Amino acid sequence: MDGIAAISTRITQIQTALASFTPRTATATAGTAAAAFASALASEVAIGAATPAASGALTADGAPAELAAYGNGQIPAAALDEIGSTGHRLWAPASGAFERLSAAAAADGVAITITDSYRSYASQVDVADRKGLYSNGGLAAVPGTSDHGWGRSLDLGLDASALAWMRENAARYGFAEDTPRETWHWTYSS
């Protein structure tokens, strides 16, 4: 299901839920009505938080379903989420997961920084020119095939303790160390 269809479905679900509420009698106090509204709102927020948005779906070739139409490295900035205030952008589920991962690492006293995130096609060409293609012993994917171009991968600044923390904890947040020879490269897949 694409992102727009998922949003439309969720709106319909919320409208149906709201329609099932019975009007309060005139004897209900404003406090009771406010409490009922707060409870209903909290319930809907909890359902939304517990239910992964359709934006979590990947196509067979690993592209985020709602971004696939743009093409690898062609995604407009507005279609990606900024990771906190870092200036880096990722696919929304990956961005949120990384923010949670980063907060957990910080709570454990581990510093993790971002050195690279989403890469446009032109940026992928530049990296391939400077670092060589992975298949030829370099460090870059063929332009147009990088998970960076889908907003799923990050390059991280990791010291030894941060790398150990990532290897022990990153999977809980949907990230995997998926590129041999690149301990700094982590990809979101959940």
Automatic annotation (TrEMBL):
It holds the Pfam family VanY. One of its GO terms (molecular function) is peptidase activity. InterPro entries: DD-CPase-like, VanY-like_core_dom, Zn_M74/Hedgehog-like. The lineage of its organism: Bacteria, Bacillati, Actinomycetota, Actinomycetes, Micrococcales. It comes from the Bacteria. This is M15 family metallopeptidase. Residues 89-188 form the D-alanyl-D-alanine carboxypeptidase-like core domain. It comes from Pengzhenrongella sicca. GO terms for biological process: proteolysis.
